[in-house]
């Protein structure tokens, strides 16, 4: 760890670290031994072409005013909060969340703020759930039993995600240290229905481009929100429905605006990708067994929108209890309700995508954006059929992205033995670097040990086994994940300096719709601090029902999510799970 330098050093040093993050991040696939550092030729090329190469941090590093600490654009300054106390809540600017120092794993020492140097800084996105809301296989009808099974704001996931990209692009640097941000990592559930349409939208949101968040009829919305069914909010109708009874507004033109073209500037930082169960599995829960009936139903012209509460409960219980991993029961359920289906416009873009399709999309030069090529994935992943890798973050930090999804089915996760051994070896081979591990599932939601159909004899491992491996390596600082849609920060303490923090971040689909900036610092006193700062999208807290522009829809996305029936207001977590300083003994 002796090579640690301050990020407040020369512009040349900042650019070198940027090149390490953007150009030198070489993926590691199972059984493939690529070096984490760039080759000599890569380093020479980066140095020679530094002025021309995209340097994500140059804009931040060139600022003339002091960068840190600052709060603008973060939840330390302000958080969306209700302006009225009953009924449908209109949002406005609320007080920010204070920063909490947590010393369960090491005592914070006085004077550390004046000594610390920055190791790395990055942003975590998680659970964007970009949704093709007109997709025929969606489970909206479960709302007849569980009101939270469908959310009134789901048609606005794309403008909401673009607004989050705009927020990150506007950040001056890392809020506490002022260091340049190295990259953005998405920790899974980037899409919602494992549909090609959603995958294309995700890639364009992150890397930039024009997106039309519509499928089927190119001119008209066809889904539950113009169905006339009272169990769903019908925004374009003055007729009363269950959500309007709770204060949801009548918004003429809402659905036309929701399927209108959206433009994403793309992230101005390198970005990396981690896979989640909704990315890997149809509907996030059914095994990747290639059921032909479901694949054909996804692109068909028939959509089920309403079932009885009893039927909805039966299907939901089957999913929750993982009793139908191969989706044979779901196929029979759809066949039994075929006469209740409504006609919609068929669209092949709604077809499910495979693991190979997911990797090829990331490797597609059309979606490279600022980079890196493949966004962490490599041709080695494609050849091996794996979705995990390691990459160089800075001189002193590596990142490791895991695939915790289980192709055997169910929404909870696990790791195969080969990947667990690879994780252990990667940490051992890079023992002189600090490590941050990324995954979709949390330690407590890695409980699904169903065999992978492609590797039926390989043992699957739960969260306890992952914790055991991470705890054996003193260079591990953090395990960063999502899945539970809630802010939770958990200390994991082992013997000696073998301790790390597990940082779980709330989703960007359920309120409070957050992402997280994470800064790693050496306090120069035998301890390391991890600073976590939550951010909202760039959309204003206040909404105007007459504003159905891209920005107006992003603001409405937040307000509707706050008011969604059944919304869990505890997802923001406690103050100790939000804006924090997490102290560790230096390994």
Radius of gyration: 23 Å
Number of helices: 16
Dominant shape: globular
Strand order of the largest sheet: 3-21-20-19-4-5-8
Instruction: Estimate percent helicity.
Output: 10-25%
Could you give the count of β-strands?
Answer: 21
Please describe the biggest sheet, giving its number of strands, its sense, and whether it closes into a barrel: 7 strands, mixed
Content of β-strand: 15-25%
Mean pLDDT: 89
N/C terminus separation:
9 Å
The structure class reads: alpha/beta
- Given as residue ranges, the uncertain stretches (5+ residues, pLDDT < 50) are 1-65
Task: Explain how this protein is built.
- By secondary structure, the chain is α/β, with parallel strands linked by helices.
- The chain contains 16 helices and 21 strands.
- A 7-stranded mixed β-sheet has the order 3-21-20-19-4-5-8. A 6-stranded mixed β-sheet has the order 11-12-14-16-18-17. A two-stranded antiparallel ribbon has the order 1-2.
- Helix 14 packs parallel to helix 15.
Summarize the structure.
With 587 residues, this protein is an alpha/beta fold.
Descriptive tags:
single chain; 21 strands; globular; alpha/beta; seven-stranded mixed sheet; 587 residues; disordered N terminus; 16 helices; six-stranded mixed sheet
């Amino acid at each position: 760890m002796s090579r640690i330098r301050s990020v407040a050093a020369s512009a040349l040093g900042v650019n070198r670290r940027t090149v390490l993050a953007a150009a030198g991040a070489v993926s590691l696939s199972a059984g493939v031994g690529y070096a984490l550092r760039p080759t000599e030729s890569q380093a020479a090329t980066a140095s020679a072409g530094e002025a021309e190469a995209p340097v994500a941090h140059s804009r931040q590093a060139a600022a003339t005013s002091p960068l840190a600490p600052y709060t603008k654009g973060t939840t330390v300054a302000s958080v969306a909060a209700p302006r009225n106390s009953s009924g449908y809540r209109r949002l406005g600017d609320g007080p920010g969340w204070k920063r909490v120092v947590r010393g369960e794993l090491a005592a914070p020492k006085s004077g550390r703020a004046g000594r610390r140097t920055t190791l790395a800084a990055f942003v975590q996105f998680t659970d964007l759930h970009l949704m093709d809301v007109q997709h025929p296989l969606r489970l909206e009808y479960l709302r007849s039993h569980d009101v939270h099974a469908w959310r009134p704001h789901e048609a606005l996931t794309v403008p909401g995600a673009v607004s989050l990209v705009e927020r990150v692009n506007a950040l001056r640097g890392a809020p506490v240290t002022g260091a340049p941000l190295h990259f953005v990592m998405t920790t899974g559930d980037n899409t919602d229905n494992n549909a090609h349409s959603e995958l294309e939208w995700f890639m364009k949101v992150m890397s930039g481009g024009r997106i039309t968040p519509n499928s089927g009829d190119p001119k008209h919305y066809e889904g539950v929100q113009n169905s006339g069914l009272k169990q769903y909010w019908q925004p374009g109708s003055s007729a009363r429905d269950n959500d309007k009874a709770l204060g949801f507004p009548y918004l003429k033109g809402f659905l036309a605006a929701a399927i209108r073209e959206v433009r994403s500037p793309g992230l101005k930082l390198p970005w990396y990708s981690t896979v989640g169960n909704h990315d890997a599995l149809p509907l996030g829960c059914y095994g990747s067994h290639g059921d032909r009936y479901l694949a054909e139903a996804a692109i068909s012209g028939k959509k089920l929108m309403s079932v009885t509460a009893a039927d909805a409960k039966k299907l939901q219980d089957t999913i929750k209890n993982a009793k139908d991993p191969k989706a044979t029961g779901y196929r029979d359920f759809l066949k039994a309700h075929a006469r209740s289906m409504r006609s919609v416009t068929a669209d092949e873009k709604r077809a499910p995508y495979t693991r190979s399709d997911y990797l090829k999309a990331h490797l597609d030069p059309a979606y490279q954006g600022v980079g890196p090529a493949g966004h962490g994935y490599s041709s080695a992943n494609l050849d091996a059929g794996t979705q995990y890798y390691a990459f160089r973050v800075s001189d002193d930090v590596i990142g490791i992205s895991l695939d915790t999804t289980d192709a055997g089915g169910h929404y909870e996760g696990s790791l195969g033995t080969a990947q667990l051994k690879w994780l252990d070896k990667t940490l051992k081979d890079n023992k002189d670097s600090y490590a941050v591990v990324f995954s979709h599932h949390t330690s407590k939601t890695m409980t699904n040990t169903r065999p992978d159909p492609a590797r039926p004899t390989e043992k699957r491992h739960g969260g306890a086994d992952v914790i055991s491996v991470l705890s054996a390596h003193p260079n591990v600082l953090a395990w960063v994940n999502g899945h539970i849609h809630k802010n939770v920060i958990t200390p994991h303490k082992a013997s000696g300096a073998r301790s790390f923090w597990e940082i779980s971040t709330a989703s960007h689909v359920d309120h409070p719709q957050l992402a997280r900036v994470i800064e790693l610092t050496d306090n120069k006193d035998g301890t390391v601090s991890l600073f976590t700062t939550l951010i909202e999208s760039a959309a204003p807290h206040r909404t105007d029902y007459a504003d159905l522009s891209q920005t107006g829809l992003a603001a409405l996305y937040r307000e509707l999510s706050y008011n969604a029936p059944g919304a869990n207001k505890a997802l923001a977590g406690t103050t100790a799970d939000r804006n924090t300083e997490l102290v560790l003994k230096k390994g």
